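Quick start: load a record and inspect it. Here is HIT domain-containing protein:
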Amino acid sequence: MPSVALDERLVRDSYPVTELPLCQLRLMDDSRFPWLILIPRREGVSEVFDLDEADQQQLWREAGEVGRMLKALTRADKINVANLGNVVAQLHVHVVARLRDDDAWPGPIWGQGQPQPYDLNGLASMRDHLLAQLDGLKQRL
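Running the structure step on this input writes:
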């Protein structure tokens, strides 16, 4: 699948993790929340309904599997899946592990406090944990 230019805010605020069948998977640079983003590799798409039916199904399959993996990895109390796009129009889906003791619980994460960027060790550790879990996930997608 061809690569798609990413909105510069997605590039600035997140790190690449891997490529899934439809989406690029990225880690948001805010260590307060285990927070992944799925970005479909389709040009000019800003809404889920802009995708054809097969791509819509694949997007939700990937979101579901990533959410299941993230919940197991982090022992989250809840996984939040959201597609907003008010600031970044390019279609992207947030998959966030929420814990009852996180900085924003039980409210939304957006606009809560200041992001705490990963340090190099924290980033490497999180990516290693994600990649280890993703091996099995990719086979199911």
